[in-house]
Amino acid sequence: MTLETLPRHKGGADELARLLARALLAGHWQPGDIFPKEMDIGTHFDVSRNQVRNALARLTSAGLLDRTAGRGTQVREMSDWHLLDPLMSEWMTGLTDLDPQLTRAIYAFRFSAEPVVAGLAAEAADAADIARLEAAFEGMQKTAQSAAARAQHAEYDVMFHDATYQASHNLVWRQMGHLLRPSIMALVHGSQHRTDTFDDSLSRHRRVLEAIVRRDAEAASFAAREVLRRTAIDLGIVN
Amino acid sequence: MTLETLPRHKGGADELARLLARALLAGHWQPGDIFPKEMDIGTHFDVSRNQVRNALARLTSAGLLDRTAGRGTQVREMSDWHLLDPLMSEWMTGLTDLDPQLTRAIYAFRFSAEPVVAGLAAEAADAADIARLEAAFEGMQKTAQSAAARAQHAEYDVMFHDATYQASHNLVWRQMGHLLRPSIMALVHGSQHRTDTFDDSLSRHRRVLEAIVRRDAEAASFAAREVLRRTAIDLGIVN
DNA sequence: ATGCTAGTAAATGTCTGACATTTATACAAG
DNA sequence: CTTGTATAAATGTCAGACATTTACTAGCAT
Fold this sequence. Notes:
The structure is a homodimer. By secondary structure, chain A is mainly α. Chain A has two domains: about 15-80, Orthogonal Bundle (Arc Repressor Mutant, subunit A), CATH 1.10.10; about 85-235, Four Helix Bundle (Hemerythrin (Met), subunit A) (Up-down Bundle). The first copy, chain A, is about 65% helix and about 5% strand. Chain A has eleven helices and three strands; from the N terminus they run αβααββαααααααα. The longest helix of chain A is centred in the middle third of the chain and has 25 residues, at about 100-125. The structure holds a DNA duplex.
């Protein structure tokens, strides 16, 4: 893979890092491949070597690349990628051609983890958490009917699940809320959007909310699993 | 807080980053505090501005610091720290005066997550995973008797739990294995080391191993929770 | 032929100094 | 009291030279 297919960018090192990261996440380079050298990147994008080094430093700290003096820059195995780095989530969001293996892995994680998180949320949620959950749910309701509000609906969806992670009141679980946006966004494209699907999804979300409000951990856990089950089946994670 | 209490270091930017990170993780600066400026750090440790910038860039990408031109460098809230960054785990290991709030949060996470992970491991473990688990368990057995092998025993302990995460065969769960070392190491100091405690712990680990070997997800999940319960009670996470 | 040993080229890592940009502060004018 | 401007101080960026690590090559000796 060469650089030539990548578009020039406008902004600074952030933008450059994002551009390169997204190419990597889409699978344009294979693990073990040699990544282009600093100078080539610099001349292609017409930026200083410093910018390139800053950008590559970010990709390296996200586990995407391995750089060693003399050898060059190498693409690391997907299992070494720091999927939980917030920067990664930022890079993944809106990427329509995200590696399917990744989409599946992240969703499988959510399918196993979110029931636990919902249970914790039911035990630990305070008034502010519940207000956030309710606001997100109402947003989902308002945007469920029109096809034009699809993007907004997804945002409220993200907000609802993120509020659940926040409500767990655990520093580690809270970090994982970052994974939600790319995971939910990646599925918006591939799924059908019949109205009854939305209605069904809404009522399942409602059950999670109600269980958390009444502090019923077991019910929240069960309901959270039901929210994710249909898509889990579609992805072949569970049968 | 000033720099003056920190020892000079030997190595390069890695070492410097580690030094500063550990001071932050121990709570030497409060969230919102202004961190020393590049030049001061450089003169104190007698390194170039480049090294300082590289080190600070790592702390920034770990969510520990927030840097903006003109204002300076500020310490971020603990809730913004990227606890799941592998670098963070590296910095935390062996830190005897880790912030107790962090120790508790990480253990609470494990207490809720590891039952799920063990369940997944029971479903997905292959021969190599089971070999790793058995090797780790045997190591724990061998080092359980002598007080001199305490450090080795902790290493095998880490290996056992990490092997469980690996056996889940999920890219996201696998990343979280990094948290195990600091979590387990932080507890080695505070806990009593009576022999019957070790025996008890060993038999609980054995039940996890056996459940995974016979592919019994529910039993593995239950057993994993039993492994963690005693410490969870000691830390006040559950009663 | 095989294996060892320079030697060389090419890549990333580091240092230095100058300059750019952003932010907070002080001070003066309205 | 508010607004605007000048100044200082901090991080951000650039450019060039040099250092270090690594892989490859050629040549020599066994």
